[in-house]
Amino acid sequence: MTSDVFAHLLQQMVSGESLIERRHPGCLRPQLLGKVRTGAIHRWHRERETLSPDFQAWVAAGSRWPWGEDGQLALAYERLPATTQCLLWHSVVERDDPAFTARITGLDHHAVPAACDQAMTALRQARADLYLERLERPDCREVIERLTQRPEAHPAEGWGHLRACPACAAVYKDLSQLDEQLEAQLPVRLLGWWTGQQYLRAKAAIPVPLGDPPFLARLLERRRADAPAEPSRVRRTAATRGSRGRSRAASPLLPRRSRAAFAVAGFLVGVGAGVLLLTACDPQLGAHIQPPPTSGPSPAPNDPPSQQATPPPALSARFPVQANAYTSQHGTSAGPDPGARSLGSSSVLRYDRVDFSTVRDTLAVARLAGPSGGGARIELRLDSPARPPLAQIIPSADGSVNDISVPITPVVGVHRLYVTAHCPTTTDRCIELFAFGAAPSMSGALLVLHRP
Q1: Domain with 342 in it: what CATH number?
Q2: Of 29-38, 119-128, 202-211, 236-245, the least confident
Q3: Rounded CA gap, 322 and 197, in Å?
């Protein structure tokens, strides 16, 4: 299914068709996820047993869009410029890393946070404008316009109006909780089918490809073999100067390798996760899902020789492994101290090539802090986020930073390690992780565990 979706995308590029659809202008990820959904619906008629039970039930019920909630948020989103929509989708809905969002949107990495704030302000204004368009009462207009400027502030001056006007109170709630609503409601509004946290966890478990996916490499090689000989550079330059439009029409439109790689590799994580979830939502099926291969194709004869990618050095599993030594992350943020990460219920940290071969330790150790009152934990898993945890580590209930150790079965070999968090609430980050690793049961290093 993934191959079919990207083959269609490549065909659009080769034929010169626009990559932008009216449904989601300027943002490929929702378009591709929609194509995956459509392909899965077609598969439901032939091979429904290959799809997750939840998706089967959704299709059997008529593939109905959820219209029970207020649709003003999706309408306000669609009023925004295409670039703003794309930025909000990747930063808020997909929770992509700022560096990855910068690559997709073309922004400078350091400009992404400020651009996201501006995008949220624009969405908040669009949401308020939709409400203001229906208002005729001046007092309602004044309150809503004030809330649009500072939605996070307590509406002390307008509190009496909000208590007397349920419509304005609902708009105030929308504006003050826009981040959570955008993340939870927008995907379902635009795509119909959205698995929420399961989608985000599956996406985080898929490694970003180092080169072109194999099916794309085959299609590119086939296209090169079928294409006529390229005219000389002199003739092509002359044609461009004489008539740029006729030159493009007369010459074959071949996608540059870098352009195709960026378009496909940049979005493979999200679409691959969408396909994965159709079968991986069932825990029994999810344990057998293998991530897509990350090896790139051999260079074509006309391409310059490229250096073979070398695997990263192994990371020793011996405590302390710094939290920010991750290979990839999803839903985390920089912690209060250098090297720390803040985790919430949807957060995933992935560490590739963690070497246990020289330790054979019997304890898992984590330096972390949790919320006051307890109720949070982290879990360490080997090789797949669908496997049972190697260890569950619960931080101290007083909110202080401590080194906590739990017994584990000794591990051998080099593994991929996943760190996930579970919080009392699903909206807030609750754990500060500083370091983790393995340790022997009797060691001087363990004398400092459970330190104040």
Answers
A1: 2.60.120.260
A2: 236-245
A3: 26
